[in-house]
Write a structure and sequence with these properties.
Blueprint: H1 2-17, E1 21-25, E2 31-34, H2 37-42, H3 46-49, H4 60-76, E3 80-87, E4 93-104, E5 110-119, H5 121-136, E6 139-144, E7 151-154, H6 158-162, H7 166-171, H8 182-197, E8 202-211, E9 214-226, E10 232-241, H9 243-265, E11 269-273, E12 279-282, H10 284-290, H11 311-324, E13 328-335, E14 341-353, E15 356-366, H12 368-398, H13 404-418, E16 421-429, E17 442-449, E18 453-460, H14 466-501, H15 507-549, H16 554-581, H17 586-589, H18 591-605, E19 609-614, H19 623-644, E20 648-656, E21 659-666, H20 683-694, E22 698-703, E23 709-716
Parallel strand pairs: 19-20
Antiparallel strand pairs: 1-2, 1-5, 3-4, 4-5, 6-7, 6-10, 8-9, 9-10, 11-12, 11-15, 13-14, 14-15, 16-18, 17-18, 20-21, 21-23, 22-23
Length: 731
């Protein structure tokens, strides 16, 4: 009895002096005993709490859970541990942890339930602070036994990271492996476990799979805690959510791979230089363009690659890019190892690192061939215009050539002036023989026949361009057409001169010659119109279509447009030449209207005034008279433009008695008529005289220095007309 009393005294001393609260409740949860420490912890006196329902002061949200635990102890007769919230007598909320143990009677039934209650408010606040910190850094901590059978501590944030409720993880840590990527889980169960078993900390990055195709990257750091004997007592670990960082790293890596691929595989040359202008890197295309091996570019100065004369503009452009921090481009020449002089376009792009200029990228485009093409195009344009003007001038001059020797001399002169030749000559070859070539650079072109074959021999300095060949073919074509006829005409003219010397008047012969001449003019006009002119129009349309549809720089488009304008000028000039060779509608419109059209056109280009008077009566002429008078007027106007320096030209056409009278007056510088009259050396006047003679007419010329030039022409009228005009103009 004494021993029991003594034991009771000991338990009472312990119960009344411990900091934990000892509570004895019956099966109905009525408090039968509470230790005095309740007052220190919860503010209640022993008298206030004894006899009270033990769950009354528990937080309403935790009461049901605690009641179920109480019933579990009674039913299972086993102890449980739990934590919950409880109210202080002053109304504040405290966190407590409680170990509940059943007390059995002599029959083995539960008579009471003893609960040891400990205040863990400070610890809970510390844990909450830790949870807040872990939440802020997306991290979770845990501590468990060495075999991961159970966690002694696990932060609430672990659910956000692993996707598994904290309660499940604490009671069954193996559940965490269900959400780990299979490849990483195999590593954890093998290599990582072996490392921890040896007491060595691990630091691994693993992947958690919350849902399909959604991966969370986590850095797992676990430290084994060893006891005094060196055995593993527990494992403490932290999980750091590095998903955003990993995604950023992957994005950066992907971006770097794309940049590297773009850099290495770019067809343009790409390089980087530092702020001192030294090379940092370059791609294979840069190596190909410059001929410099990229492995040998380190610390080499970029400006040293530039052609000496281009140093200043390139340096200024590079300085402007660094100063204004904006891309710029420049065209320059570079000199590489064995690549020769290349023309390139370089685009400089500033490189920024953390907002600060770190260097400059360069994008190099090799435009050597394009520049050569542009220069060739410009040269071709100028060359084409020159050739076109030459052929126009040559064709116009051929209209006035009356002798074979003049035609040959004019052809030789034009070829020398236009083509790159060493020597040009007219050669005659026997009809049964072929030309004998004296060098490999010779061209022999047949132009006609006399007693022997006549060739134009050309010794070239260089190969002819396509346009030069076409020019030569056109010129030879013109000459060939005229050559045989001029040979015949010249023979006839010689006979005519002999007849004139013998006071014979072969008017029919002259008419025949002029008819032949007009026929050849018409043929040449037709050839020009149907071949050369049509070809030019076709090429003009092709060029216009090309310029409209293709992509060219503004500079090239401008040059192509100038070529189009040059073609239009050439087309216009050929049309004018065709009109001069054979005026359209001359016979249909009649002489008067055709002359008015001629004067309108001449006024646009002449520096003198033209006055034209005609009879009120209709002037009826035959075809020979219309053509003859029209050509006479053309030649007189040509003389006025080239020689007379007149400011006014007056022409009249009418009837005088039984003849048609044409009168020409100008106020030019005049000439000594005795020096030119009757001389065939002056081909213009000779042509006029012969035409008038072929029309059975008469011509009277009157001129003196500074007295102007006067011509009166009288030809028989086809049908006699009477009018008031008497044919006289006062000199």
């Amino acid at each position: 009895m004494e021993d029991a009393q003594k034991e009771y005294e000991i338990y009472k001393i312990v119960a009344e002096n411990t900091l934990d609260i000892i509570v004895l409740v019956d099966n109905d949860a009525i408090v039968r005993y509470v230790s005095p420490s309740i007052h220190l912890t919860l503010g209640y006196t022993v008298e206030q709490y004894e006899g009270m329902d033990a769950f009354t002061i528990i937080h309403p949200q935790d009461q049901e859970r605690v009641r179920l635990s109480h019933q579990q102890v009674i039913q299972s007769k086993t102890s449980v541990e739990l934590d919950y919230r409880i109210f202080h007598s002053q109304g504040s909320l405290l966190y407590v942890e409680t170990r509940v143990k059943p007390v059995l009677d002599e029959f083995g039934d539960v008579k009471y339930v003893v609960a040891a209650v400990r205040d863990i408010t400070k610890r809970k606040k510390t844990e909450q602070l830790l949870e807040n910190i872990l939440e802020g850094v997306n991290a979770a901590v845990m501590s468990g036994d060495k075999d991961f059978h159970q966690y002694s501590f696990c932060s609430e944030s672990i659910e956000k990271i692993t996707g598994i409720p904290r309660r499940e993880i604490i009671n069954n840590p193996i559940r965490i492996h269900d959400h780990i990527h299979p490849d990483d889980n195999e590593m954890l169960m093998g290599e990582t476990k072996n490392t921890l078993d040896m007491g060595i900390p691990v630091n691994k990055i693993i992947r958690f799979i919350h849902v399909d195709n959604e991966i969370k990257w986590v850095r797992m750091i676990i430290h084994p805690f060893l006891d005094s004997n060196g055995a593993i007592e527990r494992l403490d670990g932290i999980l750091l959510d590095i998903t955003e960082k990993k995604r950023s790293e992957l994005a950066i890596e992907e971006s770097e791979q794309k940049y590297k691929s773009l850099f290495e595989n770019n067809l343009d040359g790409v390089f980087s230089i530092d702020l001192k202008g030294n090379f940092v890197n370059a791609n294979h295309s840069f190596e190909k363009i410059t001929g410099l091996e990229k492995d040998k570019l380190s610390d080499r100065c970029f400006i040293g690659l530039i052609f000496d004369e281009d140093h200043i503009p390139v340096y200024e452009m590079l300085s402007e890019v660094m100063k204004k921090r904006e891309p710029r481009d420049v065209e320059c020449r570079i000199t590489g190892n064995g690549s020769g002089l290349r023309i390139v376009n370089i685009t400089f792009v500033p490189i920024f690192l953390f907002g600060e200029l770190n260097g400059v990228h360069g994008i190099v485009k090799d435009i050597t061939e394009r520049k050569k093409g542009e220069q060739e195009l410009i040269y071709s344009q100028k060359r084409y215009k020159f050739l076109q003007r030459s052929i126009n001038r040559f064709s116009n001059d051929l209209a006035n050539v009356m002798k074979v020797t003049e035609l040959e001399n004019r052809l030789v002169e034009e070829v020398k002036n236009v083509l790159p030749v060493k020597n040009v000559s007219i050669e005659e070859v026997l009809r049964c023989e072929n030309p004998t070539f004296r060098s490999i650079n010779e061209i022999w072109l047949k132009i006609g026949e006399k007693e022997q074959q006549v060739y134009l021999r050309i010794e070239l300095n260089q190969t002819l361009l396509k346009m030069e060949k076409e020019w030569l073919e056109t010129a030879i074509h013109y000459v060939t057409i005229l050559y045989d006829n001029l040979q015949l005409i010249e023979d006839l003219m010689n006979r005519v001169e002999e007849m004139v010397t013998n006071d014979e008047t072969p008017k029919w012969m002259l008419r025949l010659l002029f008819r032949l001449s007009e026929k050849e003019r018409a043929s040449l006009s037709s050839d020009l119109h149907d071949s050369v002119l049509q070809d030019l129009i076709i090429w003009y349309r092709k060029l216009e279509s090309l310029r409209s549809s293709a992509l060219f720089s503004e500079e090239v488009k401008g040059e192509l447009f100038q070529i189009e304008e040059g073609l239009l000028d050439a087309i216009h000039q050929i049309r004018i030449t065709c009109n001069e060779l054979r005026p359209p509608f001359l016979l249909k419109m009649g002489l008067v209207e055709s002359l008015k059209s001629l004067f309108s056109y001449t006024r646009m280009f002449s520096n003198y005034e033209i006055e034209f008077l005609t009879s009120e009566k209709e002037i009826v002429l035959n075809e020979d008279q219309i053509l003859g008078l029209y050509r006479i007027v053309q030649e007189l106007l040509n003389n006025a433009s080239k020689h007379s320096k007149a400011s006014k030209v007056t022409m009249k056409l009418g009837y005088y008695k039984d003849k048609i009278h044409f009168c020409y007056r100008d106020n030019g510088i005049g000439a000594d008529i005795s020096l030119v009259e009757g001389s065939f050396n002056h081909m213009g006047l000779a042509g006029i005289e012969n035409r008038i003679l072929s029309l059975e007419g008469d011509m009277y010329m009157n001129s003196a220095p500074q007295k102007g030039f006067h011509v009166d022409v009288y030809i028989p009228a086809t049908i006699q007309q009477k009018g008031e005009y008497n044919g006289n103009i006062t000199s």
